[in-house]
Structure formats: C-alpha cells, structure tokens
Amino acid sequence: MSEPSALNIPLELPLPRTISRDQHPITRKDIDLEALKVMYRLRDAGFSAYLVGGAVRDLYLGKTPKDFDISTDARPGEIRKIFRNSRIIGKRFRLVQVFFHGGKIIEVSTLRSLSEHDIEGSEEVLPANNTFGTVAEDSWRRDLTINSLFYNIDDFTVLDHVGGVADLTSGIVRIIGNPGRRIRRDPVRIMRAVRHAARSNFVIEPETWQAIKEHLDYLQQCPESRIRDELFKDLKGGASSAWAALAMDCGLFSAIFPFYVQKTVAEVRAAILANLAVADRLQSEGVPLGEHFLLALLLLPWALRELDLLAAPGEGESGHDFARMLRERLEVMLGKLNFTRAQKEGMAMLLVNLPVFAANQKGGGWPKWLLRKSYFAEGLLFFQAYQEALGGVAVSADKVPVIAPPEPEERNSARRSRGGRRRPGRTPALVEQTSGGIFGFKKR
C-alpha cells in the first residue's frame, strides 16, 4: 500500500487547529433548527456530532447554506436506532437520512477513513467496514480545504486539519493532498474546484490549477450522467457566468462542450458570459429557470454563429425542415451528456422560435396567433433575456410571464426498464467497474 506521504499527506496526521467560539463567526442561531436537533441527540446518546462541509464554509463566509450535513462517530445502524424517522441509503458509503416535517432531510454520515486516498494499493474495492475513521482522516480525504472544516456542537469550536480557515480568509480554492492524484481518483473534482472558485469569487491555487488543466481528458472516464448533474449545479447555482469564465480559462468548457472548441470559445466568450449573467440575475431575483432554458442560453451563441439562427425560417415547410435539422444537430452534439428527451426538445423549441419573436416584435404588441402558441410565455422570456444580454432593457422579474412548471426530470433514482428488469439507480464515480482499484481504476 502506498504511503500517505506520496499523496502529500503527513505520515502522522497533525493535531488540528482549534478555533474557539470567540474566534469564529458561526453561531447556532444561523444553523438549521433540525440540524441542531440531530446533533444534540447524537451528543446526548454519547456520540460526537459535527456540522461539516459546505455548511461550515458558507456560515464562515456569512452565507446561508443550502444543506446542513452532519458527521459522527456513530455507525449507520446506531444512527438509525437513535432516529426512527430515518433510513439508511447507499452501498459503499452508507448515509442516514433523517426526515422532518415539510419534506426536510438532514443527512448524517459516519466519519470516513483516510484509506480512500490510496490509489496505488490493493486492486480490490475497499469493503464498507474499512471506511470508518476519525475526524482527522475524514478531513484529509475530502476534496477541498475550504470544505474540510468541522463545527463541534459539544464546545462550539471549529476544527481545521488542512488549512481550510486560512484558505477561506485568503480566498483560495485548493485540492487537499496531491491534486493530480486526487483528480485521477475522481475527475469530477475538477468541476467542484471550478464551481467553488466561481461561487465565492476565489482564486484556484497554482498547483491545483495546473493539475486541472493537465487532467481534463480524465473527465471522459466519468459517467455522462454524473457530468450532466454537476453541470446543472454550475448553471443553477447563481454564478454560472463566473463559472463559465473560469471553465473557459482552464479548458473545462471545451472539455464538456467539444463543439465549442477553444478558437470558437474566444470568439463567442462575451456572448456566452452575457447570456449567463442574465440567467444569474433572474435566478437571484426568484425567477425559476428550467435546465433546458439555461442550456439554450449557453448554446445560443453557437446557434447564432454556426446556423445563422436569426435568419432561419420560422414558419412553413422550410421552418419545419430547419427545426428538424437543429434537433438532429443537438442530438449529435449533446448525446454524450445524457440529457433527457424533454430537455433537448425544450432547448430546440427555444432556439427555433427565437427568430419568430425577433421577426414579430412590434411596438403595438404581439400577433394574436403567436399569443396563442403554447411556447409563447417561455419563448418570450428567452427572447427578452437575449435582448438584455445584447444591452437592451433588463427583464423585470415581477413581469416575467407565467410559465408552466417543467416536467420532472429523470435522475439517478432506481427505475425499471421496459423489460421489467431493475436498473441501478446510483451512478459510479467512473464509467468502468472493473476488477481494478477504487472507482474502477486498475493499478498502472
């Protein structure tokens, strides 16, 4: 088994930096009430309880966390006994979901072992009973330093094993350990590093940045559905324009969208960023935008450049031919990202009808035949967003047309095929599940 030092991890994990209550900004009044209840019950049952990950990061930065995840030294079965309103999920890494009124879920995980770092050890996947560890080990096995802080409910201190507080203070995103090896273990770490830098306006430290640029090809080894789901987090997180800028700078953008080659990206960069900036503003003001809408905004500069979209016929047989051609192009271009049929149809609908709105824009209102179209409300919003991105009038959030909610999208939940066989619901970290090492890799 390879030594931890080969991964830039100390052979003997040092004691953490302990930040006392009077030296950090996190207070219990900012923590979700149900999360506090879970931590208190774990503590009262004799176990440790920590608020972890993004919740600690966001609270430290003065933001409101989206999720409040908890770690403990209690095993999944022990957690389940404490919380009857819970269930155990997962196979290799088992989590406990604790349910509360209103559909709220608090996820509780058992502290994990540092053995997950080992990329050059045994070629067998680590068994579940080898994954439990200590706070120090769990800290070092996480992706980013800024996501590796632990808030201890017992004494309200923050435990920092990896320099996360210093990086938060300095505005730095850093992969823990050897960034190249950590990315090879799970290439999606590339997307997470870029996402957090964009959302917090942080800088990716040089070694991590270089490793990202050198390992983009490894993303091809990840399941398409996993890349897709990470992409939607980037587009829906409120910082998609900043994300796209960083993704273009490091080459990630072209790795996800190969039809946007680097040369093309340089020519349409400003248009893409302007489109996504409009989406960020609308979402920040409470306007819900469907995933297909966000993707259409991202694809619009390509369609304008490659297909001369605004000059495309919008009606008649030629219009139908153009729509068919566009759908076929989207199918080829986006097939590897495993978007649903509804998402691809939604993208095509918005793009195909943009020239219809451009041609029928009149000071006296829209034609009655266009007002009756089922796509009018969403098509109008797309056209208005496009106009704003060009420097036109900003779309007023309180005047956004009412759009029917999108159909539920299929995700990774277990489902049955037509033949009745159960298909797996959880996607692996990498495509191949061979007899190799963790995540399907073999020792090279």
Give a verbal description of the structure.
The protein folds into three domains: 4-170, Beta Polymerase, domain 2 (2-Layer Sandwich); 176-222, no CATH class; 225-406, no CATH class. Helix 14 (316-334) packs across helix 15. The two termini are 14 Å apart. It has an eight-stranded mixed β-sheet with strand order 1-8-7-2-3-6-5-4. It has a two-stranded parallel sheet with strand order 9-10. The chain has helices at 33-44, 54-60, 76-82, 135-141, 164-170, 179-185, 189-200, 206-214, 224-236, 240-250, 252-256, 262-284, 291-306, 316-334, 341-359, 368-371, 376-389; strands at 17-19, 50-52, 69-72, 86-89, 95-99, 105-110, 149-152, 158-160, 172-173, 203-204, 415-416, 422-423. By secondary structure, it is of the alpha+beta class.
